[in-house]
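Lecture 7, part 2: worked example. A protein chain together with N-carbamoyl-L-aspartate.
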Amino acid sequence: MKHLRSIDELGHDGVVRLLELTRHMVEINARPVPKVPALRGKTVVSLFFEDSTRTRLSFETAAKRLSADTMTFSVSTSSVNKGESLRDTIETISDMGVDAFVVRHKSTGTPWQISEWTNASVVNAGDGWHQHPTQALVDCFTVRQALGVERFDGLTLTIVGDIKHSRVARSNISAFSMLGANVVLVAPPTLLPPDVAHWPVTVSHRLDDVLARTDMLYMLRLQSERMSQGHVPSLREYGETFGLDAARVAKLPSTAVIMHPGPMNRGVEMLVDPSALPNSLIHQQVANGVAVRMAVLFDLLAGESSTAHLATVAS
Ligand code: NCD
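Predicted complex, written out as structure tokens:
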């Protein structure tokens, strides 16, 4: 694998391979000194043209735990502000000798464009509404770990909220269905994309109708910065219809789990304190984020004999 730009490009076998590799990384992260020399001499650049807390920091932590060198590109203090193009920026950084770009950009397709301009590997850390493959791997790993399953056959995974503007939803729908899940989307019609009928999902507009058959409830925020107009009449009304409150938590089966990719908007989609819910996996998602990104960087950069190489670093 040279790049990780979408879940579909990775395919079922690639998803399973990275989830297996993540298990080794979790084991490394549990050590007193969670650091191995696997990527010594490699350089990873994070190039975030959009805001991020979890994704950027977890990629940087992942690279450091594998002993790669890291560079952080900050748009606000770069020559982008002097009119330098994306292509010239990429070529300039490439000339310094880098092995991987981790890219987040508001435009769909940017990671594919970048891979035309550099010989380095490109990892998509979110492109517009389109894809966020490492978040989907995090979420698959977290569901597997929490529910003690490898595949999701027979499980109903329900994604609630602003599906239309969500790259997380698009990547998760692909990954969850590759692993056999029954994926249910719950949103008002204004927050569903026009082509949803062609997606491998069933759609409901009533959250209360699907809770009792949900094994994992995945809440999304309203991604206002990606909206061109008001898609909901009011935030209060949205919360009443699609928000997670204590009454809705009580309607879930006792074995069901609750997830959110962050950032969370308390008082809008999240009307309960998730840290008070025993079945919330939000902290596990963040912790697994580091291990998944270690697996991705290792898979891309460790080279031909990477499995044998892992055996040496993981022992
Ligand atoms: C998401 C993103 O940026 O796509 N956050 C994340 O990476 N964990 C979701 C969001 O912005 O709502």
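The mean pLDDT is 94. The radius of gyration is 20 Å. Keep this in mind for problem set question 3.
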